[in-house]
Every structure is written in C-alpha cells, then in structure tokens.
C-alpha cells in the first residue's frame, strides 16, 4: 500500500509539473511566432545567434557579445587582431579610408626649348603678318636664328624674335628636343660676369698667371668649359679661363630681322662702303700730292746744282770734278728728301691736318705730342658707322673685315693721320694721358702679361668702339670691360 501511495504522489507531482510547464510555454510560443511573423523571420535568426553566443557568456559574464557589423566589438581574427580588415582606419576622431590605388600615367619628358623654335630653312623663312602665305611679310628668320613660340595655329606658329612678331609654318622650325640638338651648332654660350671684377687666368688654376681683369656685367663668348672653369674670348688674341661660380651662363642666338631693319642695314652698309671708298681716295690723293711735291723739290735742287757746275767749269778736270760733286749732291738731296718724306709720313700727314708748323718728327710725337688737330667727336662718329661689320685677324677693311689696330688705323686715315700697323706700335704715338681723362677720339690700349695687344677708340661717356673678336665683330663696349693699360691722345 505504501508503495502505491508513493507512486501516486510522484505521478501527481508529474502531472502538476507538466500542467505548469505547458501552461507557461504556450503563451511564450504564441508571442514568439507573432513576432517572427511581424519581423519576417529575422527575429528567429537573431534569437539563434544570441543563443549561440550565450554559451560563452555563461562562463564569462563580462564578455562582450559582438555583432558582425560593429568593428569595435569584432571577434579577434586568426592573427589575434580585433580590427576588421575591411574597416577604415581609426585615429582619434578622424576616420580615413584610403581608396584603392589607381594607376598613374608617367609624365612625358619636357624640354626647356618647348617654346623655342630654331630656323632650319636653307637660308631664311619669311615671317608673315597672318598665318597664310598670301599675308604681308614682316621679317625674316635666317637659318640658325631663334624665336619664341607664342601659340600654334594649325600648321603655323606665332612667334616673336627681336623686333619681329608674326607667323611661320612650323615645318621650318626645330622645336623642343629637336632644337636642343642644334644649340651647339647655332647657339653661342655667353658668360656674364656676376662679380665686380674677375681675373682671367692663363690656365685652369688659381695659381696660374692673370692675363687681364674683366669687369662685372660684361659678357664674353665661352670657347669651352668643364665643371669648374670656362675659357672665354675677351678680345683679339686674349683668351683665358675664369671660374664658373663667378659667371652666369646663357645661350645667345641670332634673331629675326624685320623688313625695316634689313633696309636700314643695307643703307648703312652702302654708306660705310662709300665712306671707306672716299677715305681711300683722299688718302691716295694725299699720297700722290706728297710724291709730286717730293719730285718737284728733287728736280729743282738738281737743276740748281747743274747750273752752278756749268758756270764754274773751265777745264775737263774741273768739269769732271763738278760732275762728281753734282752726283754727290743729288745723292745727298735724295737721301734728305727721303728722310724728310719718311718723317712727314711718320708724323701722320700733319701738314694736311694743319698742325705741323713746328715740323715735329715721329720721335717727338712718340715722346708725348699730339700729331693732328681736329674734332675727336668726328673721329668717334665716323668709327661708329662701321659697328656690326666683321672682325678679321690681319684685316684692314672697315667693311669687309679688320682687326683692332687695322680698325683704328683706317679710321684715323680718314682724317689724314697715319698710325702704325700694330696696337703695340700705336701705343707709342701721340700724347700719354690718364685713362680717367680720356675723351672721344683718344686711343685706349689693353695689355696681356704687360704687353699691349688690343686698341680701341674712345667715343665718350666711358665707352669705346673697337674691332673686338670674330664673334662680335666691330662693336661698342664699356671702356673698362677689361682693365685698360694706357691711353694716348692723337688729336687735340
């Protein structure tokens, strides 16, 4: 009986528990299903995820239940890193997300001559007012001359060069890297002195002899260069080395010539040729007059001696002696005439210039007297007519080419003054003056290693005109472009 009672108790307890369990479960199940219906199945999925995470939560109540979309609570990855590899980097309050790297194009190489065109025409190419072959010609860009390109218009480019602005067909120009290949052929490298005074040395060493000094802001052609030194052409045969750190190097090109400039150049050339021809005729006339005067004087002296001999001869022996004396007298007169003529020539035709009343000889001129009278400004003005004409070593032509001493000699010849041929000889003519007191018409001399090797004509205002070198030809310069050695006054 007792066993039956115990069984009934357990059975009753089971029934009560079963009723309680199902009574509590059914409302919850009903609510859950309604929720699932309303959330279209998402609630069930979320519940599964929470249940799965709750297993670890039981063992660690402080563990963070991570959500897949929350990088701050992401579970550690295999490397132990809790950061989502796809999440943007976080730094303080700033969030930076670098976009995927995009491929970048390699920049095209550029040339410093991209906007420079060098003429490759056989002789020259016309510069026109508008971009067509029917347009007015405003200038010419000769072969090797350069222009700056302003813009491109189809097959034409607009350029500026010198005083010319217009259009040229691009096919006649080397541009960019093509132009760079022509720099050594058509360009002239120039060194502009960027210090007050710079030594020009005989060799590439600061221990080398100083040939001369050149002044600041003057420019000289570079003959060759290396990393530290540049060899420059100063003038004539004066070439030497300067340290490159004291010069600014640029490339100089010839420029376009306008139609007006071309006409003016032609007029100037014709005038210079006419002036040179006139000077040559005047010199020839003076020489002919001098020879005629010499011949007339010789004839007069010979006639006088002959008459005396005829009047005094009374016998053959006496006549013979007279004849001998006549011959001697004639010879002496000829020698005297020659000496006198030479002295007159050395005095540079001073009789023609009206200043030789004292009959000074060349030796007295060399000792310090002017050898002609006239206006030094007229001499300077005449010399300036030939600026731009070529330099030719050993030449004496004012139009076709001359060197420095040939230039001064030809200029002074125009005014009836004969100068020796070389600059060294000319430095001993006329009156010595200080360089600071030089005025138009005076000669300025320059030396290398203490020996005069260049001469220029002062034009006033601290400037000179001279046949400088093959690159610049006859040009004007600052009188102190290199250190003057001495100055001489020829007219006064």
Short description:
The chain has eleven helices and 25 strands. By secondary structure, the protein is α+β, with helices and mostly antiparallel strands.
Topology:
Blueprint: H1 2-38, H2 42-59, E1 89-91, E2 94-96, E3 116-119, E4 124-128, E5 137-142, E6 146-153, E7 156-161, E8 164-169, E9 173-175, H3 177-180, H4 183-186, E10 188-193, E11 197-201, E12 210-215, E13 219-225, E14 229-235, E15 238-243, E16 247-252, E17 257-258, H5 259-312, H6 316-346, H7 350-353, H8 362-366, H9 376-384, E18 396-397, E19 401-402, H10 404-413, H11 423-426, E20 431-433, E21 443-448, E22 451-460, E23 463-469, E24 473-478, E25 484-489
Antiparallel strand pairs: 1-2, 3-6, 3-9, 4-5, 5-17, 6-7, 7-8, 10-13, 10-16, 11-12, 13-14, 14-15, 18-19, 20-25, 21-22, 21-25, 22-23, 23-24
Helix pairs in contact: 5-6
Beta-strand percentage? 25-35%
The number of E-state strands comes to 25
**Nearest-integer average pLDDT:** 76
Q: Categorize the overall geometry.
A: flat
Q: Ends: how far apart?
A: 171 Å
How many helices? 11
Q: What topology, given as strand order, has the largest sheet?
A: 20-25-21-22-23-24
């Amino acid at each position: 009986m007792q066993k039956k009672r115990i069984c009934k108790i357990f059975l009753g307890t089971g029934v009560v528990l079963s009723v309680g369990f199902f009574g509590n479960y059914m409302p919850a199940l009903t609510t859950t299903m309604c929720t699932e219906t309303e959330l279209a199945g998402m609630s069930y999925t979320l519940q599964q995820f929470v249940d799965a995470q709750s297993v670890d939560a039981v063992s660690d109540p402080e563990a963070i239940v991570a959500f897949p979309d929350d990088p701050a609570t992401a579970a550690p990855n295999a490397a132990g890193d809790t950061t989502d590899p796809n999440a943007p980097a976080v730094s303080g309050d700033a969030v930076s997300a670098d976009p995927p790297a995009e491929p970048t194009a390699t920049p095209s190489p550029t040339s410093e001559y991209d906007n420079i065109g060098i003429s490759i025409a056989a002789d020259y190419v016309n510069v026109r007012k508008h971009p067509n072959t029917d347009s007015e010609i405003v200038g010419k860009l000769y072969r090797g001359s350069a222009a700056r390109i302003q813009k491109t218009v189809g097959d034409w480019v607009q350029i500026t060069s010198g005083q010319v602005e217009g259009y040229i067909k691009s096919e006649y120009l080397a541009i960019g890297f093509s132009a760079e290949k022509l720099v050594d052929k058509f360009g002239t490298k120039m060194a502009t002195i960027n210090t007050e005074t710079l030594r020009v040395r005989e060799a590439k060493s600061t221990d080398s002899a100083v040939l001369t000094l050149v002044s600041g802001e003057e420019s000289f052609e570079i003959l060759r260069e290396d990393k530290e030194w540049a060899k420059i052409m100063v003038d004539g045969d004066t070439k030497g080395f300067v340290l490159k750190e004291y010069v600014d190097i640029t490339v100089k090109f010839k420029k376009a010539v306008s139609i007006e400039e071309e006409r003016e150049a032609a007029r100037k050339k014709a005038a210079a040729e006419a002036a040179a021809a006139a000077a040559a005729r005047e010199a020839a006339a003076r020489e002919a007059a001098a020879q005629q005067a010499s011949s007339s004087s010789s004839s007069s002296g010979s006639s006088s001696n002959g008459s005396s001999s005829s009047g005094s001869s009374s016998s053959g022996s006496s006549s013979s002696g007279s004849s001998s004396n006549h011959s001697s007298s004639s010879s002496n007169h000829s020698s005297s005439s020659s000496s006198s003529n030479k002295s007159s020539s050395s005095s540079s035709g001073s009789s023609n210039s009206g200043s030789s009343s004292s009959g000074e000889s060349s030796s007295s001129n060399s000792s310090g007297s002017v050898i002609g009278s006239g206006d030094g400004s007229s001499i300077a003005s005449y010399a300036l007519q030939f600026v731009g004409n070529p330099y030719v070593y050993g030449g004496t032509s004012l139009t076709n080419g001359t060197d420095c001493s040939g230039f001064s000699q030809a200029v002074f010849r125009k005014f009836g003054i004969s100068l020796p041929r070389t600059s060294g000889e000319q430095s001993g003519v006329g009156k010595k003056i200080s360089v600071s007191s030089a005025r138009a018409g005076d000669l300025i001399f320059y030396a290398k290693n203490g020996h005069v090797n260049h001469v220029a004509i002062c034009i006033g205002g601290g400037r000179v005109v001279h046949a400088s070198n093959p690159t610049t030809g006859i040009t004007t310069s600052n009188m102190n472009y290199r250190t003057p050695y001495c100055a001489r006054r020829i007219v006064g």
